[in-house]
Amino acid sequence: MSGFLAVDGLRVAYERDIEILRGVDLGIEAGGLAAIIGPNGAGKSTLLKAVAGLAPVVGGTTTFLGARIDGLSPPALRRLGIAFVAQEDSVFPEMSVRENLRLGGWVRRKERAWLDRRIEECAALFPAIVPHLDRRAGLLSGGQRKLVEVARGLVAEPKLLLLDEPTAGLSPAMVRELYRQLARLKQAGISILLVEQNVREALEVADHVYVLAMGLNDVDGPAREISRRLPEIVQGWLGRKMSGLVA
Ligand SMILES: Nc1ncnc2c1ncn2[C@@H]1O[C@H](COP(=O)(O)OP(=O)(O)OP(=O)(O)O)[C@@H](O)[C@H]1O
């Protein structure tokens, strides 16, 4: 497995004796972009949350840059350079967009001049939010708020960005804007692990794709290969659904 991020045999249970992830493996190289796809309820969000320190891990190991990180708190993970953008709307509506972005740089809050500059830089990645920097975030559309959340995740200069269904609810134009930026971030050396329902878009931007089903690895491989095999893979999900194995 990779020396950058390696997940081995990960098991998660929200309730005793009910394992949602039942031994999942995943690796991502420095500067890589990996996508996790799979049917509803497969455990995709749970996998991302577990890496972000937000799900109850009951087994397996996760290493980041060679050190064990399973069991670390979300703030400790942020300090190591792991940013997580949740699927749920997490913008503070009463605060301005700028203040929301400032929260993303909390770990470096004492470097005021740097942080002011960094906020402008991250906002500039998403031109749709620049005119709104000093408006209340609650006044923005759902799509604009999602871009604010991604920008906020980038403020502290993470090494690894975890994105949970970032395109859910976005207009086609915003999906394109987001994916254009993800491709640029990848070129700039940021590693990205994302969960996507928007399978076609994910396959275009990812270099490696993990397919999860029922809390286990189904298949994984280079995006081009998964793209070619997609009809057969989806057929497999449908087959399991028909036989009552998938929710
Ligand atoms: N906090 C929680 N407590 C208990 N069960 C949970 C919790 N979060 C998720 N689950 C359950 O874990 C399973 C996997 O959920 P998860 O959200 O990880 O799947 P997913 O593959 O991301 O699905 P979707 O594509 O529908 O978002 C589901 O059966 C879900 O009901």
Automatic annotation (TrEMBL):
Q: Where is the signal peptide?
A: none
Q: So where does this one cross the membrane? A: none
Task: Cite the ABC transporter domain residue spans from the record.
Answer: 5-239
Show the Pfam families listed in the entry: ABC_tran
Q: Which domain of life is it from?
A: Bacteria
Using the record for this protein, list the coiled-coil segments as residue ranges, or answer none: none
State the InterPro entries in the record. AAA+_ATPase, ABC_transporter-like_ATP-bd, ABC_transporter-like_CS, BCAA_Transport_ATP-bd_LivF, P-loop_NTPase
Record keywords: Amino-acid transport, ATP-binding, Nucleotide-binding, Transport
Question: Which Gene3D superfamilies does the entry link to?
Answer: P-loop containing nucleotide triphosphate hydrolases
Q: Tell me which family the UniProt entry assigns to this protein.
A: Belongs to the ABC transporter superfamily.
State what protein this is by name: ABC-type branched-subunit amino acid transport system ATPase component
